[in-house]
Write a structure and sequence with these properties.
Length: about 425
């Protein structure tokens, strides 16, 4: 077999004259001369069969004809007439295809993706599609790297490359660099969270968070949904963080636990709707003259109005003895939006209006209601205490919608009630 694209020397045209092979060659190029009467003896095996491969190996390629029965690709030519020629060609090309395009050259400091080739007591070898394997010193890698098996995918950092020695690398360095680049990319794409461990606080008001060995910075304001009442309480804990920015000057990834918690809010609100009237425990985040703010279920924040405080908590509130971090119990009174939840400590103040709502309203029903809030996409209408519906702008028109403000009375028609999702669908009556 031979591929004309891989010829090393260009051979001149060969002619037969006076029973001899006479070649016209370029200057200073020598080739084996074979007397015609000796050919049969020289290239006949012990069984008396002529050895075409051995004979054609001595012939210039211009006089040799490819085997027309061999199916090839990429312009390859196969000259062998052996019965196994097709099978051998297919095996060789399949091996080349499985390795893909080989890297032309390497440089120290580069990161490459590859697969573990072998693991021994001295080295872990990695195949990255280069002409040589990359050798990683076994005892320089941590236990999780030492546990890799042949075939496992990994990244490797080229630490030493010299043409006359083995190529040395570091899997730990490669994996860390790849993770760092993944974190940087996540700053732009968003939506990806990693588990990190809060290692310590720093002087300028934040924390260092280790994400699989990469040190990231988390400002104190991004450590929770609300300001932490005990800044040291999260040191040593693990939490999900989302990369939010990158500082090229410091080479630091900035992460946020707050952004991760915000993504959980819709899910937690749906859970609340399935268990109305259930007593919940939370922690005070702060107080105002009209009530107490409480964080609960990790990511939700609600307010207990001073009129909804129980007797004991009300007394502490008036004496200004309620402090951030204090534990309180309460019931969810109303879910107005993702960021506005009203709470109460008076159990009799909450009766779930959704339990028998289907018996109070027949479809369609025209009711007198009140505008609660106005958004660009419509009006939220308070049908009764604890029951709010959306009157979409497409049902009322933008001009008419702009006439209304919060607290205004309005007449609406209920077209559908979805008890499972606790949604009321409204339109303007005809």
């Amino acid at each position: 077999m031979n591929n004309e694209k891989n010829k090393r020397v260009r051979i001149g045209e060969v002619k037969i004259n006076d029973n001899k092979l006479v070649e016209e060659l370029e200057p200073n190029v020598e080739i084996l001369k074979v007397e015609s009467e000796d050919v049969a003896d020289q290239f006949t095996d012990e069984n008396g069969e002529f050895m075409w491969d051995a004979y054609e190996a001595t012939c210039p390629s211009k006089t040799r004809k490819p085997n027309p029965h061999i199916k090839t690709k990429n312009g390859d030519r196969v000259y062998s007439r052996e019965v196994y020629a097709q099978e051998m060609y297919d095996m060789l090309t399949a091996h080349d295809d499985s390795r893909g395009t080989l890297l032309a050259e390497l440089h120290a400091g580069e990161i490459h993706e590859g697969k573990i080739h072998a693991v021994s007591a001295e080295f872990i070898s990695v195949d990255i599609g280069y002409r040589e394997l990359i050798y990683v010193k076994y005892d320089k890698e941590p236990e999780d790297i030492q546990a890799l098996k042949p075939g496992d995918a990994t990244a490797v950092l080229i630490t030493q490359y010299e043409s006359n020695t083995h190529v040395l690398g570091s899997i730990t360095g490669g994996v860390k660099h790849k993770l760092f680049m993944d974190l940087r990319e996540a700053v732009e794409t968003g939506g990806t969270a990693w588990i990190g461990k809060v290692t310590h606080m720093i002087e300028n008001g934040g924390y260092m968070v280790a994400v699989q060995g990469i040190e990231c910075f988390m400002p104190g304001s991004l450590a929770g949904i609300n300001k932490l009442h005990d800044f040291s309480s999260i040191i040593g804990t693990e939490m999900y963080v989302v990369p939010v920015s990158f500082s090229p000057e410091r080479g630091t990834i900035v992460v946020s636990h707050r952004k991760y918690l915000q993504a959980l809010i819709p899910v937690e609100l749906e859970k609340l709707k399935t268990s109305p009237g259930e007593e919940i425990t939370g922690n005070v985040t702060g107080t105002a003259k009209y009530g107490v703010f409480v964080e609960f279920n990790d990511c939700l924040t609600g307010m207990i109005h001073n009129n909804d405080l129980d007797e004991e908590t009300s007394a502490k509130f008036k004496a200004r003895q309620i402090l951030p971090g204090d534990e309180v119990t309460f019931i969810v009174k109303d879910i107005i939006s993702n960021t506005k939840i009203t709470l109460t400590q008076k159990a009799n103040a909450v009766s779930n209006p959704w339990n028998d709502i289907a018996t109070r309203y027949q479809m369609p029903s025209i009711v007198q209601a009140t505008v609660r809030t106005k958004k660009d996409y419509g009006l939220f209408i308070n049908i009764e205490e604890g029951v709010t519906g959306l009157l979409h702008v497409s049902e009322i028109g933008e001009d008419i919608m702009n006439v209304f403000k919060s607290g205004d009375p309005i007449t609406v028609q209920i077209t559908r009630i979805d008890i499972d999702s606790m949604k009321v669908f409204l339109k303007m009556p005809q």
